[in-house]
Amino acid sequence: MMKKYCSKFILLITILTTPLSLNAAPVTITADPYKDTVSHRISLYLWGAGMSGNMGNAAGGAPVDVTFEDILDNLEAGIMANYRLKKGHWAFNFDYVYLNVTPTSDNPPAEVDFKQTTAELSAGYEVSPGLELLAGVRYVDIDMNATIKITPPPPTITGADDWIDPIVGLDYRSALSDKWRFFGRADVGGFGVGSDLTYQLAAYIGYMPSKSWNLYAGYRHLDFDYKSDNDKKFFYDIAISGPLVGFGFHF
Predict the structure, then answer these.
(1) Residue at 21 is within a domain
(2) E-strand spans in the chain?
(3) What total number of domains does the chain contain?
(4) What is the pTM of this model?
(5) Does residue 189 form part of some domain?
(6) Fewer CB within 10 Å, N or C, the chain?
(7) pLDDT tens, 204-250?
(8) Which residues constitute the domain of residue 246?
């Protein structure tokens, strides 16, 4: 009798549990695909930028309207490079631009030695695929000497200053196909800490002939509205903009 009831009990348990074991989906823990992903990119580029605006100091100022052809004709030295580290959702970016140009003028006869360094360091966090919120700093160093070639010669006009701007912005990257990419960047900063206002807008199309190399081209605009608070009263209200081409190595 007891054996009969035990058999029925085992049969009941089997009937109740079998549907569950057949139909229940297994519990899967999905790992974060970004967690351990690390990538680096080093790129060199040529920014065919012109400059326009006003620059000067307490002694006076002058309008600036220089094309890329003018800069190229009078270029003494130039470096344009970028490094990007991506780890998980975080991205770190360093951008460096150095220019030394020595333009001349016939009316009035003058020689100018102009140096500008712009270095930017930022960190971004990917809030959705391809979209990063970023924050960082942009350092600017300006050194200018202008000599007027008349008799008697007036004092050399000098303008030298450096400052740091905090910046915040957005970075967007999207794969258009297996080979083609889109990159966009917008940031704003200064906020009276360095410049009264600085902002940047950029958009590029990239092509990847392999997993390690990419070529890209686009347009970049960088704007400054800076006034120093020292006795020289140096001001730099300049827009730098133009097409850009470059190549990068990924590893």
Answers:
(1) no
(2) 38-47, 50-57, 60-66, 75-87, 90-101, 104-106, 109-128, 131-148, 157-175, 180-190, 197-207, 213-227, 235-250
(3) 1
(4) 0.80
(5) yes
(6) N
(7) 999 999 999 999 999 999 999 999 988 878 899 999 999 999 999 99
(8) 38-250
